[in-house]
Predict the 3D structure of the following.
Amino acid sequence: MILNSILLHNFKKYKKTKISLGNSMIGIFGNNGAGKSSLFEAVTWSLYGVAQSMEGREGVKQQDLIRDGQEEMGVEVEFSLPGHQYRVARYLNIKRGVKSRLWIDGKLQAQKSREVISRVEEILGVNVKGFVSSSFIRQKELDLITSAIASERKKLINRLFNLRVYEKYEETAKNSKKEKENEHRFVKKQIEDQEKELEKLPQKEMDLKDLQKTVEELYRQYSTVKADAQSIKESYASIEEENRRYMDCKSRLELIKKDMEAIQNNIKEKEGELEEIEKAFQRKKMVEPEYTLVLKLRERLAPLEDAKKVYDEKMRLIQNLEIELTVTRKNLKGRIADCQKEIRDFNEEKEKMKETTRNVEIIKEKIEQYKDIPSKMEEELDKINKLKDKETDLIAERAQHIGKISELTNELMNIQSIGIGAPCPTCKKPLEESHYEKLCSQYRIEIAQEEKAKGKLDGRLNLLSEMKRESQKKVDGLKKEEKNLEELKLQEKEYLKAEIRLETITRNIEDREKKIDECREHIEKLVDKDHEIEALKEEIKLLQFNPEEYESVKKDIDARAHIEREMIQLEERISKKESISTSILSLQEKFKKSGEKMKESEREFNELKAIPEKFEEIKRKRDDIIQKEMQVSREYTQKKTQYEERKNELERLQEMKEDLKKKNENKKEIEQMIIIYGILQDAFKQIPVQVQSRLRPRIRKETSELLNEITDGKYPYINLEKDYSLTVYYDGKYYPVSRFSGGEKDLINLCLRVGISRVLVSLSAQRNFARIQSLFLDECFGSFDIERRNNLLSALNQLRKYFAQIILISHIEDIKEALPESFYVEETADGTSIVKKIK
C-alpha cells in the first residue's frame, strides 16, 4: 500500500486541506500541537472508522473529531497497490450519521461503513490494530520496548503481533476447565448421595412384600363388612319409609286439632261482631235528626265556597299589583339616580385620562428604537464565550511552549557549562569547537522558534483580550439600554391599562344612559297597572259575596262535624252484617269437615304405633355397621396408600439406579473434558511463548543489521532474551540498554521498533497476508545530534527495500534538506491548520 493523497474536511484542526504524497521519504514538519499527527489519524479513521485519539479513551466519540462549530467532517484517502488504484471516503454528519464509500479503479465497490471496513481489511490484509502496529512508530512506544518491566515488554510484543488473542483463548479454556471441575464436584456429590440411598433398597423390597400381605387381608375384611352393611341398609330403607308415614300422620293430627281450635275462636269473634252491629243500628236512629241538619248546612255552604274562590283570587291579584307598583316605582327611580351619579363619576375620570393616549404613542416609538437589544446582547455574550474558550486553548498551548523553552534553555546551559573538550552529553565523544558551536546554535534556533511561536500566541492572546474588552464594553452598554427598555415596557403596560380603562368608561356611560331611558319608559307603562286594579275592585262588588255569612255557616258545620263522623262509622259497621253472617256459616261447615278428617287420621295413627320402636332398633344396627365399615375402610385405605407410596419409592430407587449408571458415565466424560481443557489452557499459554521465541531471532537479526548500519559498525549486534530484555554488543561485550546515553538509547529503541515493523511486513508479505509498504515515524529524532540524525536518515533510506514510502513527522526542521519531499503544517490565527508543500 502506497498513500497517494489525503483530503481532510473539518477534521480536528483542518478546515479543508489536501496533501499529495510521492513514492519516497517524506517529511511533515511543524510546531508542537499544529496537527501533524492528525494526518495519520485521518488515514486510520477513513480506512477503518477509528482514530488513535479514540482508542482506550472512555467517552471519546467520533463527533469529537469534528472541527469546533461544525456539524460535518470527512476524509478521503487514495492509495495504490500493484495494478490497482483505491479511493476510500468517509463522512460524518452529527444529525445524519456516517456515510462511507470505496472505489477500485474508479468503480464504486462498497457503500456501507461496515462493508467498506471489511473490504479494506481484505485488501490490506490487516485490521486497524495490525495496520497501526506495522506502519506507525511513536516516540513513547520506543521507551516501552526496553522497559525494565518484563511484563510490559511482553504485552507490547503480544499487541504488535496480535498474540493477545491467545491470552483470551487461554482464559476461556481456564474458565471452561473451572466450570467442568465445579460440575465434576457436583456430579460426584450426587453419585455419593444416590449410592448411600440405594443401600436401603433390599430392606425396602422386603418391607413392601409384608405390607402387600397386610393390604390383601384388610381387603377381605372390608369386603365382608361391606356386604353385611348393604343388607342392613336395605332393611333400614324399608322401615324408614313406614316411620316417615307414622311421623307424617302424627304431625297431621296435631295440625287438625290446631285448625279446629282456631275455627271455634273465629266463630266466637264473628258472633261478638254481630252483637256490636245491633248496637250500632240503635245508635243510628238516635243520631239521624242532627245528621239531617248537617246535610242542610252543607247544601247552603256549597255556593258560598264557589263565590269565595273567585273573591279570594281577585283580592290576591289586587294585593300583588299594589305591591308590584309600589316596589317597581321605587326601584326604577333609585336606579335612575344611581345611573346619573355613575355617569357624572365616569365623565370626571374620562377627563383626567385624556393625556394617556398621547403618552402611549411616544413610548411605543422609544420601544421600537430598542427592539434589537436582546439579539445583540445574545450575540455579544456568545462571542465572549467563544473568545474565552479560545483563550483557554491558547494559554494551554503557550504553557507547552514555555515548558519547551525552559527544557531547551536548561540543555543549552548544560552544554555551555561543560565546555569544549568535555564528553558530549548525547554521543559521549569529546566536544570539538565546531560540534560545540553547532549544538549551541541548534539549541538557540530551537529556542528562538519556540520564542517566536510563544510570541505569536502572546499576540493572539492580547488580540483576544482586546476583543473581549470591546465585547464586554458593548455588553455593558446594551445592559443599560436593556434596563431603559424594561422601564419603557412597564410604562407602556401602565398606559395601555389606562387606555383600556378609557374605552371601558365610554362603554359604561353609554350603557348607563340606555338604562335611564329604559327605566323612564317602564315608569310610564305602570299607569296601566292602576287601571287594572280598579277593574278588579269593580268585579268584586258584582260578586255579592258576604265573608261573614260564609264564616258563620262554616262554623256551624265544624261544630257538628263529630255527628257526621259518627254517622259514617255507624253506617260502615251496619253494612258488614250480611258478610259476617255468611262467614259464620262457612266456618261452621269447615269445623265439621275437620272433625271427620281427625277421626280418619286417628285410625291410621293407631295402626302405626309399633313402627318407631322397630325403626330405632334397625337404625342402631345400621349405625354400628357403618362405623365398623368406616374403620375397616380407613385401615385398608391407610395401608393401601402406604403400600403405593413405598411402591413408588422403590420405583424411584430403581430409576435412580439407572440414573446412577448415566451419572458415572457423565462423570468420566467430565473428567476427560477437564483433561482436554487443561491441555488447551497450557497450549494457549505456550503459543505466544513459542511464537515469541520464533520471532526473537528474526527481530534480533533485523535490528542488528539496522543498528550496525546506522552506527557504522560501532554496535553490530543486539541480543534479545526470553523476556525480551535487550543487550547491545560493544567492544567485545553485551551491555544492557540502561548503560548507554539518552541519544544512543533512543537510537537503539528506534532500530528495535523498525526491526519489529520489518518483521511484521516481511511475515505478512510471505503469507500474502498484509500489503503495507508505508511507514510513519512520529517525533523519533527528539534527542539525536546532527550526525546521528544523518545516520538514522541514511538507515531509513536503506529501509526503502521494505517500505517504499517512509513518512517522518517531526518538529525538527534540520532534516528536511536531506529529504526529497517535505510539507509544513502551520496553525493560522483563527486556530485552524493548513499544510504547505515546501520541497
Remarks:
- The CA atoms of residues 175 and 435 lie 62 Å apart.
